[in-house]
Amino acid sequence: MSTASQAKATEPGKTEPAPSAVMNTYGRFPIALERGAGAHLWDTDGKKYLDFYGGIAVNSVGHAHPHVVQALKDQAEKLWHASNLFVIPEQERFARRLTEDSFADVAFFCNSGVEAMEAAIKAGRRYHYKNGAPERWRTITVAGAFHGRSLGTIAAAGNAKYLEGFGKPADGFDSVPFGNMNALRDAIGPETAAIAVEPVQGEGGINAARLDYLRDLRAAADEFGLMLIFDEIQCGMGRTGKMWAHEWAGVAPDILASAKGIGGGFPLGAVLATHKGASGMEPGVHGTTYGGNPLAMAVGNAVLDVLLADGFLDGVDAVARRLWFKLQDLVAAHGDVFVEARGAGLMLGLKCAPEHVNLDVIKALMAGGLLTVGAADNVVRLLPPLIVTDADCDEAIRILTETAVSLSAKAKA
């Protein structure tokens, strides 16, 4: 049936567009983005935006990075997919590079963050099974977490909004308050296998864990023989100014889930683990059809080239620190709109005053040419690409300031 015949007549000579054939799982903004370059995007009407949402922390090296684009083109002309039944040289190389620059000994590749977390949770359980304690299968998680949208990961996070309508949540998870070690220790029992925490909560409201808390998690895991899982899907891959957010605390997990920025926009996820953390993962107990294919690995290696370049992460840290102080000044000057700046590195949030709903603020910023994204606790997330410049940040502060002034005036009118 043609689009014209699908259109609904409203009055003589006029029609409405046919309804979208895309499943209605998103509340979309009425903007179609057409192209990007660096930290900027253009929509189909030609309007230019400064991108401070980064595809929700995905576009780590910006849009259309020439090195990554070339790597994709080169690999696309050779081999896209072969399956993990064969050795994939680019996968071997990517795994080696990631493990050499982390706590890990081995890596498993998949297509997304939720797949990475599912595999990480399975590895945590399987470790105990292989070591003669199959009764240890439960994972302690924390309030405000977001680990993905599979039935397993929504149960792990325990957020009522995401659980609604899907029946009884999957068992195996015990939630405690974020940052509360007394509650966490009280939750450890004979069935506990692992602890899973985001070092910086993203969807939960840009809540950065205290470094002492991360150290205490490591100590508790060691004391009780538990697997420590860090979800660095959003906060890893240079987002905080170090390759991994937990590095600021000087501790390491047994298992780590990565995604988002690891592929710079190409669907890619990874699980990194020590030999101990991965000891239960044997042939046949887990797998993926597409994960780690040659096309994804070529892109992942190209993104890693950028992130590991001399001085790159130091530059991320420097830009982030300068932006942090400017956000503090913004809050001090416009506290009737923004009441708090939060986060770490280039994973930042502005908590809005109760009378300003974050979605309304996001729409106002969008009208001013700045793209941002919401989070829990009435927070506006700022997740620019890691190649963002001081000049880009100054432009973002200008738009944030002008928007705050406008919103404040409207509220007083």
Strand content: 15-25%
How would a textbook summarize the main sheet?
Answer: 7 strands, mixed
Shape: globular
Portion of residues within helices? 25-40%
How would you classify the helix and strand content by structural class?
A: alpha/beta
**What fold name stands as the CATH topology of the largest domain?**
Aspartate Aminotransferase, domain 2
What do the pLDDT scores average to? 95
- Corresponding CATH architecture of the largest domain: 3-Layer(aba) Sandwich
Strand elements, count: 19
Please list the strands of the largest sheet in the order they lie side by side. 6-14-13-12-9-7-8
Mind explaining what this structure looks like?
This protein is an alpha/beta fold. It folds into two domains: 3-63 and 311-412, Aspartate Aminotransferase, domain 1 (Alpha-Beta Complex); 66-307, Type I PLP-dependent aspartate aminotransferase-like (Major domain) (Aspartate Aminotransferase, domain 2, 3-Layer(aba) Sandwich). The protein is 36% helix and 19% strand. Strand 10 (200-201) and strand 11 form a beta hairpin. Helix 3 (66-76) packs antiparallel against helix 10 (294-307), helix 4 runs parallel beside helix 10 and helix 11 runs parallel beside helix 13 (390-412). The protein is globular and about 70 Å long. Mean pLDDT is 95; it is low at 1-10.
